[in-house]
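User: Hey, my collaborator sent me this sequence without any context and asked if I could get a structure. I don't really work with proteins. Can you help?
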Amino acid sequence: MRRTLSPRVECLGLMLLALLLIGAGLGLRSAQNVDEERFLGVALEMLNNGSWLIPHRAGEIYGDKPPIFMWTVAFFVWLTGKPNIALYIPGLFSAVTVTAMVYDLGRRLWNQRVARTAALLYLATYQTYSILRTGQIDSFLILFTSLGLYGLARHLLLGPAWRWFYVGCAAMGIGVITKGVGFLPALMLIPYAYAVRKDWPGVVAMPGDARKWLLGFVVMLGAIAIWLLPLAVSIAFNDAADEVAYAREILLRQTAGRYAAAWHHREPFWYFFVNVIPQYWLPLVLVLPWLVPAWRRQLSKRDGRVLVLLGWVALVVLFFCISSGKRKLYIYPALPGLVLVAAPLIPWLLQRWFRQRPRFRRAFPALVVTWFVLWFARGFIEPVKDGVNPDQVIMTQANTLSHGAELVLVNWSEGHWLFARQPIVHFGMLDSTVERAAQWLREHPQAYALVPDEVLGRCFNPEAARELGKTSGAQWSIVGVDADNGKCPPEPSSTVYRFNWPQIVGYTVFGENRPLDVVRADTPDKP
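Assistant: No problem. I've predicted the 3D structure and written it out in structure-token form, which is a compact way to encode the shape of the chain:
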């Protein structure tokens, strides 16, 4: 008789696998894309200036996202002293924790074999690897949406379990102040209500508990208030216009406004079905032609577990399809639910294939091991392939050519700010024009300006500029006041942000043997 591992030991083994896959190459990686540069920079700025309620980017208020992820990165920077590691710890922690939740829920809803299959499917999916290894908010959001899924499933499908329901509601609240869509697990209540009304087996009806249900909503609001209440108090006492503008931006424009009429990443309704699911939900997507008919048969048998989980996955995908703004990572919160509802059918499907293709039975374990080994190896190959961030190279050159003088940024990106080695000046992320830079150099002739070549000729003589290289989709040059061509008239006064990264001994960043630049921003000059 074949002996099986205990659920606890098996779960720990799967958590270790998650740690190895997602943690491979940790410490070799550094911020490479604009999201990672932005969130690490904001976290470092929080750590030094103490503005925890309202994030800042180079001294200017950053109103696109709530602060939970940046708080977490800042905490791990403080704990480890290594920003290039701290940025990726939230995703690593999510990988280990979500794997455990998927395993435990699969075991409770079905059995240990299904639990193992679900956890392996989750870790094998390309989107898991591509998101959890990044320093992006979604690598941390999945922790709270999955905990919300776990808590609600324990209550709706295995309950009554009111404590787990409240845990799920609290997780959704934290998810909301991590990224606005943290409430997604609540969509489970829609297929659940249908299943209860139609008396489907596999769900737990709980009539007459309206107060307990309402308390869950209160718990979620309480979790949101961890950040929102202190913010409201600060706004009420300080009555600062920039704080009021931040609250309006983050609560209205960046949530409901962005969902209803996105101004970035606009894609058609079918974007996820054509551009995301076929690639990022590999290898699970390969068996969908067999899974869909099997799910249909399970629904015809009135299996409430399948209805609630599969219905929730469909609602999450539909929710993001309706929005005009779409990114590849948006539908990732649905993946744990998908692997849970697919896992019970995978053993049946494999047995069917094994009977028809005996050689496949012998090759399949080796194929699975090879798949995971390749992901593990890629973790060490990617940092070498990516190399040094080009923004870091350019800012190092700018510091050398300008002899550490004040540098004015034009049409800048987060990498220019994060890797700056000298005092920088800008006029806001959206208002740092070449005309304003030219005027600043006239008033401060000892300063230099970092300008993209596409706008350089409007105010400066290109032959007097020094080329630095290409990054952030543009070719960049550094100029001094001697390059002014006199074609740009004076610009109206605007807010000026003067910013510096003072060196604090005891930290190293991005693998360099130099002190960590921890943020300090001067108070912006008002017009």
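In plain terms: The mean pLDDT is 89. You can pass these tokens on to your collaborator as they are.
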